[in-house]
């Protein structure tokens, strides 16, 4: 019986959550007319959302039933030949039931690394095998036969064996079939994809036993064109499950159509992976064939006059994300706007690298080695209190020497196509607030030479960044303009890579000095700071750029 209000409590809470008998039936949702071209022909199509099982895939039910029926699995190693839904469900449910944590997946080495990592995320150990990716259960040299032999030799190991374990299909006979018929007694067609054949055999067995007129459609892969989960018909032929007496017909669907249809389903809110799209595509193809042959009305329900169809949604799309973009055309997805931003500004920004002006002033007055201990420890004393605490002006000679320290050590010459780098001026000898030697941060000013000449931080070096155009400066919203971000980023890269600046930065790094970047509003220097940090320089920017307002540092 379902628990009250869907609340699961106590020591068995999660096991109860995984127990279909303690849950409402999985949703059966009619697809929107947009996805049903036969709605006007009286065809109604419902998605059976097996994705709403707690492990979010069709194999949760067989995994639960197989484990329940092999109680010795509790204390033994569990092995299974599966890279997807089955072993994921076994791994999750074994832990839910018994706290078991030794489930091993035997997986083709052709699986993408994300699939292997998905297993590892759930604590399942992948064991890779080479050769053919999708192997036949009857192949004597294949993985399934090897595992069957393994468990005869090793008595501490159990192999549920989804391909020949009757509890695989019986799980669907016990739960999926009865749920569907109870939810939709007028079901005329049941359609699902076929992998091991568990879902189709079990569901069909129940539906046919209760409603023999119900038509069963199996959907297969096209040989050599795999949709993950289902198989191709040729391989399925040898399946030992009693499917042949229940399955009326089958169709094959190319993988590209499976992916596309599942994308459409997902976009309509029925979030489902490729095999679910394959089931719906196969169903629509079959209905199309029936309509063409004039056989649709024969299937219509006596009570409703309509043809009611159910197909299965078997898993979610997320772990196939890469394949959607390989299979489908770029024009099937919305384009990424401002794509140019993927080519620049990919480095980390960190708010701790933005100094507010009082912090910057404090830092410029102190040896950087003090600040290095903890970059967040810079005290935020107000600018005015710092001004009052200004040390006495140094001599003219020491001022000049320190003003030029950046260039004296690196024989500075102008970078190509930019204004000349300008060092600070002797006028600051009389108004000098900030001591500068090779223990205080180096200040690099990215503004134009004109702006620099008008005002700047004493001892700073002007590195004009041509990409900071007057228009951009006037606009004042660098990060609102993707092209401008790219231009500033590229310009900054070229600026920092130029031999003189690169040499200067190397020297700064060697001396353990920080670098404070200033600009018009703080945005460009934030980009520059990220770049400096990437290069191992302890860079900072100043909120607001460094100039302006009451917090301005420019003199
Ligand atoms: C995503 C997915 N869809 C469909 C199937 C087919 O189910 P069955 O094995 O019951 O035929 C599988 C089987 O693993 C699957 O993983």
From TrEMBL:
Residues 376-388 have a biased composition (Low complexity). It holds the Pfam family Rhodanese. It comes from the Eukaryota. This is Tryptophan synthase beta subunit-like PLP-dependent enzyme. Residues 367-391 are annotated as: Disordered. It comes from Chaetomidium leptoderma. Residues 437-545 form the Rhodanese domain. PROSITE patterns: RHODANESE_3.
């Amino acid at each position: 019986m379902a628990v009250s209000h869907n609340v699961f409590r106590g020591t068995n809470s999660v096991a109860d959550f995984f127990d279909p008998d303690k849950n409402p039936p999985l949703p059966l949702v009619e697809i929107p007319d947009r996805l049903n071209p036969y709605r006007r022909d009286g065809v109604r199509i419902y998605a059976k959302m097996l994705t709403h099982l707690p492990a979010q895939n069709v194999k949760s039910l067989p995994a639960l039933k197989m484990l329940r029926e092999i109680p010795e699995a509790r204390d033994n190693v569990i092995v299974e030949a599966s890279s997807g839904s089955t072993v994921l469900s076994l791994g999750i449910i074994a832990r839910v039931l018994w706290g078991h944590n030794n489930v091993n997946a035997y997986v083709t080495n052709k699986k993408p690394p994300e699939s292997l990592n998905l297993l590892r995320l759930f604590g399942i150990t992948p064991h890779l095998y080479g050769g053919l990716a999708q192997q036949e259960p009857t192949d004597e040299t294949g993985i399934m036969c090897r595992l069957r032999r393994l468990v005869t030799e090793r008595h501490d190991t159990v192999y549920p064996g989804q391909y020949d374990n009757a509890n695989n299909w019986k799980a669907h006979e016990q739960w999926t079939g009865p749920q569907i018929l109870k939810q939709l007694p007028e079901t005329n067609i049941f359609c699902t994809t076929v992998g091991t054949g568990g879902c189709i055999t079990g569901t069909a067995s129940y539906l046919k036993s209760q409603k023999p007129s119900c038509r069963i459609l199996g959907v297969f892969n096209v040989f050599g064109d795999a949709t993950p989960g289902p198989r191709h018909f040729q391989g399925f032929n040898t399946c030992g499950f009693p499917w042949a007496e229940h399955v009326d017909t089958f169709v094959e669907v190319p993988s590209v159509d499976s992916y596309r249809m599942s994308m459409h389903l997902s976009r309509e809110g029925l979030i489902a992976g490729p095999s679910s799209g394959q089931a719906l595509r196969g169903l629509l193809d079959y209905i199309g064939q029936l309509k063409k042959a004039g056989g649709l009305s024969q299937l219509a329900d006596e009570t409703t006059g309509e043809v009611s169809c159910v197909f299965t949604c078997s898993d979610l799309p997320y772990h196939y994300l890469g394949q959607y973009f390989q299979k489908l055309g770029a024009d099937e997805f919305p384009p990424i706007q401002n794509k140019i931003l993927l080519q620049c500004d990919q480095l980390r920004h960190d708010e701790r690298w933005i100094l507010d002006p009082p912090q910057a002033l404090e830092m410029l007055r102190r040896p950087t080695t003090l600040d290095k201990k903890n970059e967040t420890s810079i005290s935020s004393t107000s600018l005015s209190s710092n001004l009052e605490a200004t040390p006495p002006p140094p001599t003219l000679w020491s001022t000049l020497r320190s003003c030029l320290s950046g260039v004296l050590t690196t024989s500075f010459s102008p970078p190509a196509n930019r204004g000349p780098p300008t060092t600070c001026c002797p006028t600051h000898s009389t108004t000098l607030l900030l001591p500068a030697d090779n223990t205080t941060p180096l200040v690099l000013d990215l503004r134009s030479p004109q702006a620099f000449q008008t005002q700047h931080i004493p001892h700073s070096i002007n590195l004009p960044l041509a990409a900071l155009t007057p228009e951009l400066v006037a606009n004042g919203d660098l990060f609102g303009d993707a092209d401008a971000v790219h231009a500033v980023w590229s310009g900054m890269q070229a600026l920092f890579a130029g031999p003189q600046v690169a040499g200067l930065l190397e020297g700064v790094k060697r001396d353990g000095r920080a670098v404070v970047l200033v600009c018009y509003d703080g945005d460009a220097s934030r980009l520059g700071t990220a770049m400096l940090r990437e290069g191992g320089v302890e860079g900072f920017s100043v909120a607001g750029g460094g100039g302006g307002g009451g917090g301005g540092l420019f003199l």
